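Predict the structure of Aminotransferase.
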Amino acid sequence: MALNVTRRSETIEYAIRDLVVPAQKLEAKGKKIIKLNIGDPNRFDFDTPDFIKNAYAHALKNRRNYYEDSQGLKELREALVQREKKFNRVKLNADKIIITNGVSEALLFLFGALVEQGDNILIPGPSYPPYTSFVKYFGGNPIEYRCIESEGWQPDIDYLEKKITKRTKAIVIINPNNPTGAVYSKKTLQQIVDVAAAYNLPIISDEIYDQMNYKKHVSPCSLSKDAKFIQLNGISKVYLAPGWRIGYMALSNNFEELFDACIRQARIRLCANTPGQYAYLAALKGPTTHIKKTKRKLRKRRDYAHKRLNEIEGLSTAKPEGTFYIFPKIEHPKYARNDKKFVLDLLHKKYVLFVNGSGFGKKFGTGHFRGVFLPKVEILGEAFDRVEEFLKATK
Ligand SMILES: Cc1ncc(COP(=O)(O)O)c(C=O)c1O
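Done. Here is the predicted structure for Aminotransferase.
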């Protein structure tokens, strides 16, 4: 019997994982693929620091296997307040933080609470795909604001402001940015905060890569005393524990209804991963040497990827200032408007996997692809040699 599924569910797309299917088919035939598609440092030579793993194990052994409070462990929320004060000069209130199973779950609560049918959410163009999918899932419209490639993918503030309508509910900032690796200047962030304040709109600030920043991180939540914001962050990237599924959403004080709408959703999923919360607490209180080490490694790989990709005829790329992503432009005439074909042809001919730029937004992502520079330079070198050979052989 055919079962009708909702139209809502048909709107869900996730290019990053959708491309894994053809790659798996090749692997089943015995082909070895260089995967530069998924932003998971732990698939490469990065691992969760031992002291954080030990805290997780300790929580398990000490019977912290119960359902934690739906809002999350109080000490963890308090530690987040301290961390944000110290690193990002952001004033959080522990009573307004909800610990979630990753930023991903926070997006579910947030858009579930904010978006009515036909509402608009302003997102960067290009953008990390779940922003688009979650907004659509709740019947809203993700509206991309242009980020300017020739200016290192900085947001175009005039464009952003022109996109604000009566139906706009929030402005999303992802800084450092996935997929472009851009780090927004303080001036740009201040301008977005000012626009948001002028239209009385909240800022949703995704800072999951805050300490994977090769410049200095500035949180937009620190730039205005009376701005409304929702800050998102978690353990996945900076603390190298993506599979543990722990993150948080922190709401500024002037958000009683939104907080209530989110915490009620948090209650129906009972709680976030309990031992993971103890591990996150240890991560926040522990040494930060691993962060410096990770950045040092990534910076070297970033420099290599940026130089090497720019040397390939038919490609050009802006320099990422944060994250571990690079977002080159395809200038080769055969693929300049067909990035999905580029990614699929490269996969089938050279066994290197990227993600098509259009998967991050048709308007501003098309004609690009996203790669990660997480592997060692030797592996990156091999992958880029194959890309070069592939483009040379393409008429
Ligand atoms: C910008 C951005 N936000 C959120 C996430 C997911 O975060 P989490 O693992 O906390 O769900 C990612 C993962 O790649 C990301 O790039």
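Residues 39, 102-104, 128, 174, 178, 206, 208, 234, 236, 242, 247 surround pyridoxal-5'-phosphate (CB under 6 Å).
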